[in-house]
Amino acid sequence: MPLGLPHDASAHGHHVDAILRYLTVTTAVYLSILVGILGVALIFHRGPRRRAVYTHGTGRGGLALAAVAGAALLFGIDVPAVVRSARQLRAGFWSYPDRDPRAVRIEVLAQQWAWNFRYAGADGRFGTADDILTLNDLRVPVDRPVYLQLTSKDVVHSLYLPNFRTKVDAIPGTITRLWFEPKETGLFEIACAQHCGTWHYRMRGELTVLDEAAFTTWTARAAEDARLRFDPTDTEAHDGWAWMPAP
């Protein structure tokens, strides 16, 4: 069932779409029932001969009807949605690839109004001379977990990847994390889902998903460029941090 959502290019995005479809269908069913009841009331209680009866709803019948209707909504929509969401979150979005050797680890520093991405170089450590740095340009390989740790230099931002059905806040003084797994190559949008100031609209980046060979070629070239650009005296640019272990 189409929902008007951006194209899903991730391994776990279909779980989000399934929950949205479930909520759309069940809410439409309950809405149809309510509209039907209102329609019956309009048809059979119209005209001057059928005088309206007003009640505060405090009688046993009214309370019982309200309890039944509330329980139907709670156990028919809310509880199944919460149970399904929790199960799928634990199996996917909350199952971080901390021990997966295939995972690409990237640090994200948000600021007004740009995204700074940092890849560990050949030494596998962040904050060293061989780090790869990009601005508003995130490049990742297809069919491999992409593991991000984020913080902010100034205010709260929110990294939003609509084609991968995930987002997380970048908060000053705190390291947050997010992961996803691209299932197809292409160019996708990075947005900020938190109003962060006058030029919030400029918090836009591009996520490029490459095949493994193209990603390897890009990282080799980017590592060489990073080595040439590195300035040991520019301490303000040394904003990487030691990768935080899983809590």
Can you walk through the features of this model?
- By secondary structure, this protein is of the alpha+beta class.
- The chain has three helices and ten strands.
- The strands form two sheets. The protein has a five-stranded mixed beta sheet. It has a five-stranded mixed beta sheet with strand order 4-10-9-6-7.
- α1 packs antiparallel against α2.
Write the layout of secondary structure elements.
Blueprint lengths: L12 H32 L15 H32 L12 E8 L2 E6 L12 E4 L1 E5 L4 E7 L4 E5 L4 E5 L5 E5 L5 E7 L12 E6 L1 H18 L18
Helix pairs in contact: 1-2
* Range of helix content: 25-40%
Mean pLDDT: 88
- Could you state the order of secondary-structure elements as H and E? HHEEEEEEEEEEH
Largest sheet: 5 strands, mixed
Structurally, how many domains make up the residues? 2
Q: Structural class of the secondary elements?
A: alpha+beta
Number of helices: 3
- CATH class descriptor name of the largest domain: Mainly Beta
Overall 3D shape: elongated
Number of strands: 10
Radius of gyration: 25 Å
The CATH homologous superfamily name of the largest domain equals: Cupredoxins -  blue copper proteins
Distance between the termini: 38 Å
List the defining traits of the structure above.
single chain; 247 residues; alpha+beta; five-stranded mixed beta sheet; Immunoglobulin-like; 3 helices; 10 strands
Write a brief caption for the model.
The chain is α+β, with helices and mostly antiparallel strands. It contains three helices and ten strands. It has two domains: 79 residues, no CATH class; 134 residues, Immunoglobulin-like (Sandwich).
